[in-house]
Design brief:
8 helices, about 60% helix, globular, Peptidase M48 domain-containing protein, alpha+beta, 4-stranded mixed β-sheet
């Protein structure tokens, strides 16, 4: 499935139906959380369509939070939450293209899939590597050519190495591995 096509079909569905937002994205457990923008919801839906049709994703919520540095997954008594900073996502899209921002969301959803499938304790570095593989997989499952990973790869190369994360070059390798495994 193509991300662009699913975004437009999702927008038509979202604009014509209020039922969608009531279950998956309704609960806001944090005073800084806000409902995501329509464009971001479309991007998240494209990622959800690509990955969850294959990997049996648990239910999760998707929220905007201006206090975050970038994007993250957390959990509470209601389940998993993907939170993102809209300014970070805008800068990512401006610098590396909209597919890089979709890659960020796919990485975050990859964490949820990984947590659901790998409940035993694994290192943070391994969890990040697994999430990167899911990000690459999302592009393959959505029918994108491998060249569409370039924006996401460039955004990873621009990041400073962080403790607990694979190096930027390792992360790009994991994205390519995930793409190849799901093609």
């Amino acid at each position: 499935m193509n991300f662009k096509r699913s975004f437009f079909s999702f927008c038509i569905f979202f604009c014509c139906s209020s039922a969608f937002s009531s279950q998956k994205y309704a609960l806001m457990p944090n005073v800084y959380d806000q409902q995501p923008g329509l464009f971001a919801v479309g991007q998240m839906q494209a990622v959800d369509n690509a990955l969850c049709n294959r990997f049996n994703c648990p239910q999760f919520r998707f929220l905007q939070n201006a206090t975050l540095k970038n994007a993250m997954v957390s959990s509470d008594h209601f389940g998993h939450i993907i939170r993102y900073n809209s300014e970070f996502m805008q800068k990512t899209m401006q610098s590396y293209g909209s597919l890089a921002a979709i890659g960020v969301l796919a990485h975050e959803l990859g964490h949820i899939i990984d947590l659901n499938q790998n409940r035993f304790k694994i290192s943070r570095t391994q969890r990040e590597a697994n999430a990167d593989r899911y990000a690459g997989c999302a592009f393959a499952l959505a029918g994108h050519p491998m060249s569409d990973l370039m924006g996401l790869a460039q955004s990873l190369y621009a990041m400073k190495p962080s403790p607990g994360y694979p190096t930027p070059s390792q992360r790009v390798k994991f994205i390519h591995v995930g793409y190849s495994q799901c093609k």
